[in-house]
Design a protein that fits this description.
Four copies of one chain form a homotetramer. The first copy, chain A, has about 220 residues and is an all-alpha fold. Chain A has a single domain, classed as Glycerol uptake facilitator protein. In chain A, about 70% of the residues lie in helices and about 0% in strands. In chain A, helix 4 runs parallel beside helix 7 and helix 5 packs antiparallel against helix 6. The longest helix of chain A has 29 residues. Chain A is globular and about 50 Å long. Chains in contact: A-B, A-D, B-C, C-D. The interface between A and B is large, with 44 and 39 residues.
Chain lengths: ~220, ~220, ~220, ~220
């Protein structure tokens, strides 16, 4: 796979992920009649099911990161050349914003709109740290022991994490930035994104270090 | 597999798909007490679960298209002989109407009844375009990289797309036509079907072209 | 596997299936606060998830029929010796009643109690005929093309069929008889069981004949 | 795998399991607006999905028991050396309490708080006995016939057992002890834990004996 094709896959996959997350959030909030549990059930199921499809279809192309925290962790483990980190992250962020605009178009909203949803404080940051720690742990553990099952493990983990973290588990810096551009169910106030992203990177670093020991991942370069 | 057997599989599979979509829609609306989110949750889960079973059982016989947009895309990629396109589409449409009648029979409704459910406008068309683009993308990507997992990828995608598109993701011209013949939860006004079908074909064509490049699908004839 | 072990597996598996169906029905009705859609969602998910586990664990022992309609269809196809049909059905029915008693014990109900839930009429019978036709079709199709995936195909099908049939898809004579012995969510009036069972056998016979042609199943004896 | 690494996996996996169970219980109760069925649906889906990820990622390291009843059953079957039983159970219990604290931190609760949720009486004990019997049966049956599918079988079973048992299926002594330390949705009064644990061990012993006969598990030592 050439780098151009892999970047196209990362951009397109992240865009579709955001379309799923934001679009299903809008639909869920509109239909749920005020019951947030029902809305979050729909949002979590749509996201998990969407991830199954997206990782199965793009995994063999680009690795299906769709997530700067995953890209950084993979590079740290020597599974991605360092020079590809920046392009990966760039297209993930661009794709994420495109996905938000695509979702807004489907529901008749303006292309972008700043969120006013407050998500801050120690509980939220601890939630994002745990959520991203777990995500990296799932990817490292499953891709080592049962690589063919990784799409299902990741999708199941995120479905679960929507419910067991107080922040509903963003666990992804690109997703976090793009969700600041939607004033709907999935939104986050732009001012709150740095706290989320720092917590995510801390969790990702802790998992990469700990599971590097637990699984004794050999360091290698390239793919 | 002879063509007769494959056409029987396409007809029967599309009929069962419509029985699932329309039947579960009726049941969901009757039981949900006016909460549309709960009804759509049930409808989405029933459709996704039904697709797992249908694609697993018919995939090895006919390819389990159940969908003219998929048949056209496969033919364009050279995976289906051109002379089989028309018979495939014909039995899909006939099967779809038979499935609606089967569902109506189970719930004590008249065999057919024209829907009055308005589904039109740019947001709906964009939704159908995105939905079908994604469906073809999932099929092309997964059948290339992880063919044994395609039934799960497609079912998961449709479950998700019921929620992340404003149109609840018909993504299938045969399904669209047949759902015009049910004045229940899943219905669409007959006058609105051309817009849906055009949007679906546009999305399917875009995905076939783009992923043909991304995956560099070799062109071949026959199966 | 000796016949004794296979019969033990059929008895135990059918008992666990009924414990799942009846137990989750009681729990769902008690908690759902009168919203039948939510109760049926829980009942359908519990049944589908339970079937995944039960078929995975017992499939290699006895075939995991848990269902006289399946046993008769397998025997007709030459996959089960004729002399084993009666013992299979006998332990399935006995196990089914034991499972109802086990569920009642968990929820503090009398061991058995006759249901007063009316389930009769042409729509219900047509529903059971379609439901069992589909179940046999899924088993025959999937076990031929993708045998390792049969547990998931059957479980997904039943989850879907709870919603797309007006009868919530009993699709199993042993289950039907035992559910007459519970005056809870899952019950059926004893007088209504013959109609259900006849419809189920008709659907099973139609599927066995049709898919025997479609898949050209070779006739053989033994397993 | 050294014992230290396996114990780390058991501790971390059990901690993450409790974070999922307790965290999703808190979130579900807060959002469900008093409808316990919706809360339990979310709690069951989060737990089942979480188990898929946790068993896939840790299964190849430590066996992914996360449960003293499983560890004892494995040792009885000769699949785990007797000298490793105590360390396994110790880290499972310690991990379980750490997981409760992690969940409480995410939701702004005190690290630990004694539950006042009464769960006692014959129906509850019979429920736990059945639940654990079934869990051990699923593990023994599936790991013998379809080992690669065990993560899915166990997760599906627990999702189902949340609904078909009156106790919502703790089925795990370490989980039971740690859930006494949370005064939230998932809690159990400390005084009620011995009854649960005795019932769980009885069910596990019965399953190990019965399925040892059914599957004629050969006795061996070590792994």
């Amino acid at each position: 796979m050439t780098l151009a094709r892999r970047l196209a896959a990362e951009a397109l996959g992240t865009a579709m992920l955001l379309a799923v997350v934001v679009g299903s959030g809008i639909m869920a909030e509109r239909l749920a009649g005020g019951n947030v549990a029902i809305a979050l059930l729909a949002n979590a199921l749509a996201t998990g099911a969407g991830l199954v499809a997206l990782i199965l279809m793009f995994g063999a192309v680009s690795g299906a990161h769709f997530n700067p925290a995953v890209t950084l962790s993979e590079a740290w483990q020597g599974k991605l050349p360092g020079r590809e980190v920046a392009p990966y992250i760039l297209v993930q962020v661009a794709g994420a914003f495109a996905g938000v605009a695509a979702a807004h178009g489907m529901f008749g909203e303006a292309l972008f709109s700043a969120s006013e949803h407050v998500r801050t404080g120690a509980s939220q940051w601890w939630s994002e740290c745990v959520a991203t720690f777990g995500l990296i742990a799932v990817i490292m553990g499953c891709s080592r022991a049962r690589p063919a099952m990784t799409p299902f493990a990741v999708a199941a983990y995120i479905t679960s994490a929507y419910w067991f973290t107080a922040s509903t588990s963003f666990a992804n810096p690109a997703v976090t930035l793009a969700r600041a551009a939607t004033s709907t169910f999935a939104g986050i106030r732009p001012a709150d994104t740095p706290g989320f992203i720092l917590a995510q990177l801390a969790g990702a670093a802790a998992a990469t270090a700990l599971f590097g020991w637990l699984y004794r991942t050999p360091v290698s370069s390239g793919k």
